[in-house]
Amino acid sequence: MKLIIPLLLFVAYTAYKTYLYASKLYRNLLDARRSGIPYIVAPVWPINRLWLALEPLLMPYLRKMPFIRDKPWLMVSSGDWIWQERYGAFEKLGDTFMIVTPRYNAIYTAEAEVINQITTRRNDFPKPIQVYGTLDLYGKNVVTSEGSEWRRHRKITSPPFTEKNNHLVWNESLYQASNMVTQWVGKDGKAGKTWDNISTDAMRLSLHVISRAGFNVRCLWPGVDDDDEQALKEGAMSTAIIPEGHEMSYVESMSTMLHRIIVVLICPDWLMKYFPSDFLKKARLAYFEWGRYMKEIYQSKFDALKKSAGTNADEKLDLMGAMISSSGLLDDDATKAPTGSGLSESEILGNSFVFMLAGHETAANTITHALYFLAMNPGTQQRLQKEIDDIFGGRPISEWNYDRDLNPLFGGLAGAIMNETLRVIPPVVIIPKSNFKSGDQKLTVGGKEVIVPDNTYIGLCAAGVQRNPKYWPHGPARSAEDGGPMHPKSNLDNDLEEFKPERWLLDPNAKPLEETSDDEKARKEAEAMGVNTAPDTANTLFRPPKGAYVPFSEGYRACLGRRFAQVEILATLAVIFSQYSVELGVEDWADDEEVEKMGEKERKDVWLKARTEAERKVRDCMGTIITLQLRKGKIPMRFAKRGEEKFMFA
Ligand code: HEM
Ligand SMILES: *[C@@H]1O[C@H](CO)[C@@H](O)[C@H](O)[C@H]1NC(C)=O
Ligand SMILES: *[C@@H]1O[C@H](CO)[C@@H](O)[C@H](O)[C@H]1NC(C)=O
Ligand SMILES: *[C@@H]1O[C@H](CO)[C@@H](O)[C@H](O)[C@H]1NC(C)=O
Predict the structure, then answer these.
(1) Alpha-carbon distances, residue 381 vs 56, 69, 384, 516 (angstroms)
(2) What is the DSSP string of 169-221?
(3) Which run of H or E residues covers position 350?
(4) What per-residue string of b and e applies to 473-493 under the rule 16 or more CB within 10 Å gives b?
(5) d(Cα 424, Cα 404) in Å, to the nearest integer?
(6) How far is CA 21 from the centre of its chain?
């Protein structure tokens, strides 16, 4: 009898919850109907945390259950569906479709015209910043703000990305890439060793580059130049040095904090502090230590700038120094609070951190993915090497020159390789937008006017639109003898799943795009806001339509570090391929000695096995945790002096 009351309460509660669920779903369904956008209904909000946690366990069963397995919502409800299904989901459901759920309605689009409208209507389609809220670890910043707050941040965070700073990025990338290559090939340059995860090294490289360009702190490469007495005297950091007052080295706290960022974001401080786990304790320590380092750098820059009354050009070269100098904090009557249009100290730290977060994995992964693709496509690699030879004419790296050498890299095969890598594997697969708080919005979808109902989540699907055959030059899919189509479901009848940088170069019909008056208005407004709208290169190359190529997003909230990242990536590729080639490791099938004895045909066979396996991993083993990268398994790679390759099949 005693159980009756709890039982009744439980039943009542369940009934109430079910009612809420059903009525919300019904209201959302009515919204979808009046919108005019094609929709499907899903029983769960796919970004619900509980669902995201359970989905990997449930999916395999749901995919087998009759009545459920064929439901379209199942295809678009896994956490990483846009990457798993690629363009396939849009081929089935349309380039723009809505998912009706018991929480929000969500629009997903792989339609360039739609993406272009949304990225250029900043007030109508703001970022759903609740998604980013927790990134305020060290202070409010440009990524986590919206509206007038965002404008204030953007005004101060955009100007530091100057050509001068890009010079620094170029110089430091050449220096760090040389060290990375030295690690791979040894100080004697003999090479030959197979490396299991070059991604770790690319991460180190990008971290070192951001440290230099962001804070003007050089980091030394463990085992390569970290015994450089001169550099250490000049203030360079190495993993071995723990300065007075610190418990962790500069480099280690920075990298540990970034690599355990999810833990630091999710776990409350008491849990990290008291839970008996070294992993958590170290994450916590790294978080605090990095905060301390940033504060010290801030203070020393602030003092130097103050002393020189803001005229010290060296201190303004890096991103943090430039932010301090235009923050208003150097004014004599400045307080610590943001004054009108300026930034506060904590906001400068917040932005410095968010630059690292935004620029670290994204750029590193792009370098790694380009190396994967080049190892799988030796013919392209050889053409790249020839082009690099033409550009640098054998000059030593110390004589490479930003003003002279960057543009030819940009406008040639190197640029096309970077573009194509980011087309096939965009680090940010979905760019979130919304009309939360901005009310019903008109939108043109498929040439027809529709309504985006109030409070809709919107996903701009970079990985989808960048393989939509409507917008991209394409040829037939790979032939069966050569392995067949690259993906089992997406773009089966064309080559858009394949890595083919030539598609950026071979467009005989390319003609300059006319700017419409709307475009011009949007551009002027954007430029006033410090958004870089300059096209990357001359228009003799293939230029995708607006909204079709969005690895850096587009419009007002486009990436601040686009040029920074491009300079870093191109410089790094140039250093590597000026002297070395990258090849797939074949150790799983044959060791060095066996390969040595093989004839041409046998070698090709073993290489093909390695290529098939690498392709499989790029296809099936990537996943998103903040950014997209290989999550399962490794793609072993080896570096060979040019001319000493084992698998250079054209
Ligand atoms: C290949 C490398 C990179 C890629 C693919 C990339 C991509 C993106 C994308 C897609 C966005 C929009 C995100 C969103 O709307 O949710 C973004 C924003 C941003 N990125 Fe990058 N990024 C890269 C490198 C960098 C670097 C190196 C930096 C800085 C050093 C940087 C700083 C930023 C910042 C500050 C924003 C926020 C801009 C705003 O909201 O106004 N990014 N990036
Ligand atoms: C980059 O390196 C060149 C040559 O070593 C040097 O002249 C130039 O001042 C450097 N630029 C920056 C911004 O560090
Ligand atoms: C690969 O990465 C792991 C984890 O970051 C690291 O422990 C390991 O030493 C790396 N392996 C190589 C060969 O660099
Ligand atoms: C790379 O993409 C950008 C952006 O669409 C374009 O302007 C540029 O011409 C492309 N570069 C090459 C070499 O195709």
Answers:
(1) 37, 43, 5, 39
(2) HHHHHHHHHHHHHHHHH-TT-----EES-HHHHHHHHHHHHHHHHHH---BPP
(3) helix 345-376
(4) bbeebeeeeeeebbbebbbee
(5) 29
(6) 35
Cβ atoms of 273 and 233 within 8 Å: the answer is no
- Whether the per-residue pLDDT at 291 is higher than 50: the answer is yes
Question: H helices of 78-197, where?
Answer: 81-85, 88-93, 112-120, 147-157, 163-185
Cα dihedral 426, 429, 435, 437 sign: negative
Cα 132 to Cα 136, 424, 546, 561, distances in angstroms: 8, 25, 26, 18
What was the pLDDT predicted at 56?
87
Rg (CA), the chain: 26
Band of pLDDT at residue 315, cut at 50, 70 and 90: confident
Q: Which atom of ligand 4 is nearest to the CA of 536?
A: 7
549 CB near ligand 4 (under 6 Å): yes
The pLDDT confidence band at residue 266, using thresholds 50, 70 and 90, is confident
The SS3 of residue 223 is coil
Q: Which of 440, 447, 491 is nearest to 469 (CA)?
A: 491
Instruction: Report how far ligand 4's centroid is from the alpha carbon of 538 (Å).
Output: 8
Query: Token pair for residue 513?
Result: 């795009």
If you average pLDDT over residues 95-114, what whole number do you get? 97
The predicted structure's pLDDT at residue 512: 47
Asked if 45 contacts 103 with a C-beta cutoff of 8 angstroms, the reply is: yes
Dihedrals φ, ψ of 99, to 5°? Answer: -110, 120
Which of 323, 329, 248 lies closest to 293, judged by CA?
248
Distance 195 CA to ligand 3 centre (A): 9
For residue 165, the one-letter residue type is N
> pTM of the full predicted structure?
0.94
Residue 168 CB-density burial (10 A; 0-12 exposed, 13-18 middle, 19+ buried):
buried
Supply the residue whose CA is at minimum distance from atom 2 of ligand 2: 171
